[in-house]
Amino acid sequence: MILYELVCEHRHTFESWFRDSAAFDALAAADGLSCPVCGSARVQKALMAPRLARRKGQDAPAVPSSEAPAAEPDTPVQDGDGGAALARLGELVQAVREHVEKNCDYVGRGFADEARRIHYGEAKPRGIYGETTPDEARSLREEGVEFLAVPGRRTES
After folding, report:
1. What are phi and psi of 28, to 5 degrees?
2. Quick one: where's region Disordered (predicted)?
3. I need a surface site. Which of 44, 52, 57, 89 has the fewest CB within 10 A?
4. pLDDT tens by residue, 130-147
C-alpha cells in the first residue's frame, strides 16, 4: 500500500491509499478520482517529501534548530501495517455512514436543493443525506452551504 497526498484543480489537498503507483495511474487515467471537498475530478499527486525510515541504532539526520519539529515526528507505517490502517479507515467511514443513515433524512438526488432550503431558512433544520453532482457540490460550497461528502456505496442509475 502507498499513501499519496493529492491536490485538485482548486488546490484542496487530501490523502488517499493505493495498492501501488500503477493503481493510482489507472484510476487517474480513467477519471476515477475526485476531490472530497469540491468533487473535482481533476486530481493529481501533490509534491511530497519522502519519509525515510531509519535503521535501529542509526542517528536521525541533523535538523537545524529553526526547522526542528515542535513535537515527535509521525511514526512511519511498517511493512504490512498499511492494509490494517486502510481496513480501520474503511471501518470508520462505514460507522459514519451508518450513523448518518440512522439519524438523518434521506433526500436522494434532491440533496443540493434541500440543503439550500435548509441553509436559507426555507425548510426545517435537520440532518440530511443524499446524492449530488460535483458541479452541484461546488455551487453549494460557493454559496456557503456547509456539508460533508462521505465516501461509500455508489449506485448506478
Report:
1. -65, -40
2. 53-84, 125-157
3. 57
4. 888 888 888 998 888 888
Q: Which amino acid is located at 62 in the chain?
A: A
Domain map of the chain by residue range?
1-49, 93-150
| CA proximity to 39, closest of 137, 156, 151 | 137
Cell numbers that stand for 68 in this block: 526542528
Residue 13 forms beta bridges with which residues? Answer: 7
Instruction: Print burial letters for 71-101: b (CB count within 10 Å at least 16), e (below 16).
Output: eeeeeebeeeebeeebeeeeeeeeeeeeebe
Give the DSSP H/E element, type plus range, for residue 28. Answer: helix 21-29
SS3 content of the chain, % helix, strand, coil (to 5): 35, 15, 50
Cell of 111: 440533496
Instruction: Dump pLDDT digits (tens) for 56-97.
Output: 554 444 433 333 333 333 334 444 555 677 677 778 878 888
